[in-house]
Structures are given as C-alpha cells and as structure tokens.
Amino acid sequence: xxxxxxxxxxxxxxxxxxxxxxxxxxxxxxxxxxxxxxxxxxxxxxxxxxxxxxxxxxxxxxxxxxxxxxxxxxxxxxxxxxxxxxxxxxxxxxxxxxxxxxxxxxxxxxxxxxxxxxxxxxxxxxxxxxxxxxxxxxxxxxxxxxxxxxxxxxxx
Length: 156
What we know:
- By secondary structure, the chain is α/β, with parallel strands linked by helices.
- It has helices at 42-57, 75-94, 104-112, 119-128, 136-151; strands spanning 5-9, 13-19, 25-31, 63-68, 99-103.
- The protein is globular, with a radius of gyration of 15 Å.
C-alpha cells in the first residue's frame, strides 16, 4: 500500500517535499518570516495552518520526517528552529501522525555519499534524481524524502 509522506527542512524558509499515494512527488519552499505588525508566535500559527492545508490537499499524511539540526550558526536560528519543531511535533501528536527527526549527516550521506557534503553537492544530487529545487531548503527536503522512501520501508 502506498503512503503519503511529508519531509521538511524546518526554518523561516521551510523546504518541503511530499510523496503522494500515487507516487507523485511535489516540493517547494514556504516562507514564515515574521510580519511587520504581528506578534512573535504568529509565524508558528501560520506554519500550523499551512501543515493543515497540506494534510487536507494530500487527503491525509501517513508519516512526517524532518531534518534534525543539532547545531545552529546563530541564537535566532536556534530559537526559530525550536519553535517550528515544537509546533510540528505537537501538531503531529494532535493528528496522530507518526513523525521522526533525521540527523543532517544521515540525509547528506544518503544523498551524496558524504555526511559532511555542502549545499551545492546536495542540490546536485537531488537534481541528478530529476528534481529542480529552487533553493537548498527544497533540496534538503527532497533528499530527506528520498531517504525516508528508500530506508524506512515507506512506499512512494
């Protein structure tokens, strides 16, 4: 039985890749930059609403995978990531959707053969699979989706 899988590279510019039940892969990048006159939590409410829209458009989600980042360049990025991860995991719990964080090195090694590959190498690896990512966030989500499909027994 085929499953619907959502893979996410969490952040202000969230990369996403979705494998539908009919094996069609779609992807992109959603932007959750704080708006000028909104409170600090609004970006997470917009993220939550977007997750719900994806779930509805996909007619449900069977699994969610996200890039698990253990080290951030800046404090703001670390705080934003934590907010997105908390929002995602609580949303998944609420909807009874299994979720799993996957270390960055694991994704890069699967995509390129090297766990410390650079952004350009991941983009090139994803393009070699026939995708045309617009940025590294989308490329990371696509690489994660392929990891999930190929290693977690999820059919796409």
